[in-house]
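Hi, here's the filled form for the chain we discussed.

Project: internal
Contact: R.S.
Residues: 461
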Amino acid sequence: MRGGKRVVITYGTYDLLHHGHIRLMERAKELGDYLIVGVTSDAFDKSRGKLNVEQPFSERLRAVQDAGIADLVIAEEFQGQKIADIKKYGVDVFAIGSDWEGRFDHLGRYCDVVYLPRTQGVSSTELRAERSASMELCCIGSGYLMERFTGESRHVAGVEVTCGFSPTGDNSAFEAAGVPVAKTLSDALERCTAVYICEPIDERAGLIRRALDAGKHVLCEAPMFLSLDEGRDLFALADERGLVLMEALKTAYFPAFERLQLLLENGIVGEVKDVDASFSHVFDGLNRADRYEGSFYDMGATVCLPAMAFLGTDYQDARFTCAFDDDFCTWAKLDLAYGTASATLRVGRGMKTEGDMVVTGTDGYVYVPAPWWKTEYFEVRHEDLRDTKKYYFDFAGEGLRYELFEFAHLAATEPADRIPARSKGEVLAVAALVQQFDQGQVRRLEKGAYAFNGGETVVDR
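And the returned structure, exactly as it came back:
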């Protein structure tokens, strides 16, 4: 009870507020005297894998307030908040739509739980479908990433995988997912409006060019380019055609990574001075010739992500130290020097290390435990460890749906209004590093010593 009044609480996203939402709130209000409505935040929706929300939190919150039914409107920001809110506000009744029947019975320990019938014939999903353009997607490639991607695509509204094409003829991923198979690349490009490319790095540029020439938006596994000029040329082609060319780098779109970047930009540890991150993955029975090209070719874009996001792209010097097994790079350590900061980044395909990350600032540091590239949790620490703040986030499925949602959103946006989460400069900065690595401008570890293959560092972007 609140001041002698019977308190009712309900929650929802309230995207594109419609008559069904209004009726549900009205019925909830009839159960008591004081109604609290919780509106899910953007970050919470994203952490739950609810990626098709059209309106930002501020607009949804305002719409619920303007409806004039709720006595109090609050934000729902984390898992478990419902119990905390029930206790905090002295809630007597928890009300929710009948499509959640049984899901919140456990709240009966704290208050009455009522499932309200939904208004038939109207939903935010239907409204979004009417407003959104659909994307017909062709997947080009094969292997475990393709299997995951086709599965994740089902969770992004407005995206349909219409066909798959494997240059190697390995169609097992498509057959397992029930995706129609195109016999040729030309056939595949005729069946879609956009493509996802997951082929070895030396094949990517050619496939990107074919797709852009055919007028298709492109989402390509990272890193996309073997050289800086390759990247510049293909971005210029995409811009000329008004098409989206986007690097598939799922970590960049995880709720936790996005929140970490915002906190750092707002000075939570002062000025960022150093980034230290590692990413290693050792496979049993690795078939290097068929599946992997080497540590930095495979994983360079991922391990460079925090440096580019937190320190920028204007590094002044880049130095590689690498270990090889024949021509296969099993380990690469990259040291980046900025004017007032530094980064140490490590990737391994044949060596294993702790996959954590530390971001050092003038007023504290951020610790992200392994695996940082699947960021769900991090700590912000200061001199007095009692001041440590802990941040928890979830991500849905394999995480690939987040990058696909961003891609579909950009493709549905007019070219002049597109604001990508990752800048073209970040992608090209990584391309310059891949070029340096590919040209052998590295310190090569050999029997306890190293040999340096000379050449100037490529930094002109």
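Let me know if anything looks off before we file it.
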